[in-house]
Write a structure and sequence with these properties.
This is Leucine rich repeats-containing protein. The chain is α/β, with parallel strands linked by helices. It has four helices and 17 strands. Strands 4-6-8-10-12-14-16 form a seven-stranded parallel sheet, with no helix packed on it. Strands 1-2-3-5 form a four-stranded mixed sheet, with no helix packed on it. It has a four-stranded parallel sheet with strand order 11-13-15-17.
């Protein structure tokens, strides 16, 4: 992942300014929590420097044109319908090494292309829906709630080795999604692959009968009853290795086509 191109204010600039002040179009937040923060006071900034911030409350930065963030201590991004913490921002690179939870609509309709959150465990409704992600690799993620990654039209690969639950529509309308790894998946909602037209490789321990789709899709591996052909065998530890094995799996799929 590329390093964030954020112009971090100098220490003397931070010390000389009060909390919640702007420095070179960068909003500086000095505390861990901001329960009474009002974004109406700050609209003309592009960068966020919040070294100690632990939680972004619902609606805190909704539709604010933030481009880059530096929040190394951030643990939770809160949100509810149309009030996601970073909803509608123009952030492209999300690098949050201590993030564990993104609640409903947390990054909905963002410009996120790259996501680095090695401790992320829970994703709420529409948390990353309508983003520009191309690849997702989240080693500790366990739960993807309804429509968590839906309508990520550029998403091609997802490696989620610890996920045990995917709720309804988790990846629906991800039309470019080709490979998905969820080897520990135990519970799955309906329409998780709705309109995933290019999905060909899936690693899961669940059977075809445990997946369901809608009557009008008719183009995903579930609707075509081809999930058994898309399942991977063996252990794959990362997205790169998953990509390297695609050719072998395609040969396997061709062989299965001949048998069936």
């Amino acid at each position: 992942y590329k390093q964030l191109k954020i112009q971090i204010p100098k220490q003397d600039q931070i010390d000389d300014n009060q909390d919640c002040h702007l420095v070179n179009k960068c909003l500086v937040l000095k505390h861990q929590l901001y329960p009474n923060y009002s974004q109406k006071e700050h609209q003309n900034f592009k960068h966020l420097f919040a070294e100690r911030l632990l939680q972004v409350d619902e609606g805190m930065f909704t539709n604010v044109p933030i481009e880059t963030i530096f929040c190394p201590s951030l643990v939770r991004v809160c949100g509810r319908e149309y009030r996601g913490g970073f909803e509608g921002t123009t952030i492209e690179n999300v690098n949050l090494p201590n993030l564990t939870t993104v609640e409903h609509y947390g990054f909905w309709r963002c410009s996120v292309k790259q996501l680095f959150a090695p401790k992320l465990q829970h994703i709420g409704y529409f948390a990353f829906a309508n983003c520009s992600l191309v690849t997702v690799e989240l080693q500790q993620l366990k739960v993807v709630e309804n429509y968590g990654f839906s309508r990520c039209w550029k998403l091609k690969r997802a490696n989620l080795p610890s996920v045990v639950q995917m709720c309804a529509g988790a990846f629906c309308d991800c039309e470019r999604l080709e490979t998905l790894r969820v080897p520990k998946l135990q519970s799955v909602g309906n329409t998780v692959f709705n309109y995933c037209k290019r999905l060909r490789i899936v690693e899961t321990q669940l059977s075809q009968n445990e997946f369901s789709c809608c009557s009008w899709c008719k183009c995903c591996v579930v609707c075509k009853q081809q999930l058994h052909k898309a399942q991977l065998f063996g252990s794959i530890t990362n997205v790169k290795e998953l990509k390297d094995k695609q050719i072998k799996i395609r040969h396997l799929m061709l062989a299965l086509d001949k048998v069936h």
